[in-house]
Design brief:
The protein has one domain: UDP-N-acetylmuramoyl-L-alanine:D-glutamate ligase (3-Layer(aba) Sandwich). It is 32% helix and 25% strand. It has helices at residues 36-45, 61-72, 117-124, 138-151, 180-187, 194-205, 245-258, 263-277, 290-295; strands spanning 2-3, 7-13, 28-34, 52-58, 76-83, 89-95, 101-106, 129-133, 154-158, 175-179, 211-215, 221-225, 228-232, 303-304. The strands form 2 sheets. A 10-stranded mixed β-sheet has the order 5-4-1-8-9-10-11-12-13-14, with helices on both faces. Strands 3-2-6-7 form a 4-stranded mixed β-sheet. The chain starts with a strand and ends with a strand. The mean pLDDT is 97. The structure holds alpha-D-ribofuranose. Alpha-D-ribofuranose binds next to strand 2, helix 1, strand 7 and helix 7.
C-alpha cells in the first residue's frame, strides 16, 4: 500500500540552472507522470508487486493522465480520490546537462489527501508494507502509520521532502529511507561520508526503527540494522536525469523486503534499479522493469563500516 503524491512533472531540459535575473534557452519541455507516491507505486509494481495507491487528484486532464498511466502499470487506483475543488499536483523539474535536477512542487490536490484511520486499518489488512513520503499532509501520514500499526502492517517511511518527524511516529517505522540531507536533519548530525551516514543511521535506529538506509547518490548507500552498518557502492553510469532515483530505489527495496528478503540484497537491488533509472529522462518512464534490473551488472559486495 502506497500513500502519496501524484504530480504531473513539467520537465525542462536546460544547459545549466539559470541564475537570478538570467534568461536561458531551454533544450526541451515534456509533461511526464511523477510525484513521489506515484513513482514509488510504479517502482513497486515494476518489481512485480501488487500495489494500491492512496492519493488525490483534481478533476482535470492531468489527474486522468496520471491515473491512466498508473493503471497501465497495474497499480490499483481505486483509492485515488478525485477532488474537483483542487488542481492535480504539478512539479516544475529543471534538468541540467549534468543530469542534476531542481524541483518546485505545487501540491494542489495532494494537500487534500484524507485518511480515515479506522477504515484504513481494514484496507491495510494483508498488505506487507505501508510506504509513505512527506508530499501529502503529515497529519494524514501519521494517521496512516497508526492504522498500519493496528493492522500489523510494516511501515517503510521516506520522509521526503525533509521535515521533522514527530516523536510519536518514530516507533511506528520499520524501515526508514533517507538521503544525506534528510539523514542530517533528522539525526542532527553532519552526513557527508559513509561513516557519518552510519553514525546518523545508528542514532536514528536508537529511536525505535529496525532498519535505516541512507542513500548517497553516486556514493551508493549505507544500510544500518541490529547487525551494524554496511556501505554499498553504486555502479558508474552515464547520468541523464536523477529524478525518481530515490523512488526507484525505494520501490525495489520495499518489494525485496516484503518477500522477507535479505536486507543487504534488497539494498543492492535498489541501487541497481536506481542506477538504471538515472540513465533516462523523467520520473515514471525511467523506472526499470524487474528483468532489466536483474540483468544489470552486480555491484561489488558491501563493506562493513
Ligand atoms: O522524487 C521525484 C519526484 O519529486 C518528481 O516526480 C516530482 O513530482 C517530485 O514530487
Amino acid at each position: 500500500m502506497v500513500l502519496g503524491s501524484l504530480n504531473m512533472d513539467l520537465v525542462l531540459r536546460v544547459p545549466h540552472a539559470p541564475a537570478a535575473g538570467e534568461t536561458l534557452e531551454g533544450r526541451s519541455i515534456d509533461h511526464i507522470p511523477g510525484g513521489k507516491g506515484g513513482n514509488q507505486a510504479v517502482g513497486c509494481a515494476r518489481q512485480g508487486a501488487r500495489v494500491q495507491l492512496v492519493g488525490c487528484v483534481g478533476d482535470d486532464a492531468n489527474g486522468r493522465a496520471l491515473c491512466d498511466a498508473l493503471a497501465r502499470d497495474g497499480v490499483d487506483t481505486t483509492s485515488v480520490r478525485i477532488d474537483a475543488s483542487a488542481s492535480t499536483g504539478t512539479a516544475l523539474v529543471m534538468v541540467d546537462d549534468a543530469g542534476q535536477n531542481r524541483i518546485v512542487v505545487i501540491a494542489g490536490a495532494n494537500a487534500r489527501v484524507e485518511i480515515d484511520e479506522h477504515a484504513f486499518v481494514e484496507q491495510l489488512r494483508g498488505a506487507d508494507f505501508l510506504v509513505a513520503q512527506f508530499e501529502t499532509p503529515l497529519i494524514q501520514v501519521a494517521r496512516a502509520m497508526h492504522a498500519a500499526k493496528r493492522a500489523g502492517c510494516k511501515v517503510l517511511l521516506n520522509p521526503s521532502p525533509a521535515q521533522p518527524v514527530d516523536d510519536a511516529l518514530w516507533p511506528l517505522i520499520d524501515t526508514l529511507v533517507v538521503n544525506e540531507i534528510e539523514a542530517g536533519m533528522l539525526s542532527g548530525q553532519l552526513v557527508d561520508s559513509p561513516q557519518e551516514a552510519a553514525a546518523a543511521g545508528q542514532a536514528m535506529r536508537g529511536r525505535g526503527i529496525a532498519r535505516v538506509v541512507v542513500t548517497m547518490g553516486s556514493r551508493g548507500a549505507v544500510a544500518v540494522d541490529a547487525h551494524g552498518a554496511r556501505h554499498h557502492t553504486a555502479p558508474v553510469v552515464d547520468v541523464v536525469d536523477t529524478t525518481a532515483a530515490g523512488d526507484t530505489f525505494l520501490g525495489a527495496l520495499a518489494v525485496a523486503l516484503a518477500g522477507d528478503g535479505d536486507f543487504d540484497e534488497a539494498v543492492r537491488l535498489g541501487i541497481r534499479a536506481a542506477a538504471l533509472c538515472i540513465t533516462q529522462l523523467g520520473a515514471q518512464p525511467s523506472i526499470p522493469q524487474r528483468n532489466a534490473v536483474l540483468q544489470s551488472p552486480l555491484p561489488p559486495a558491501w563493506t562493513p563500516l
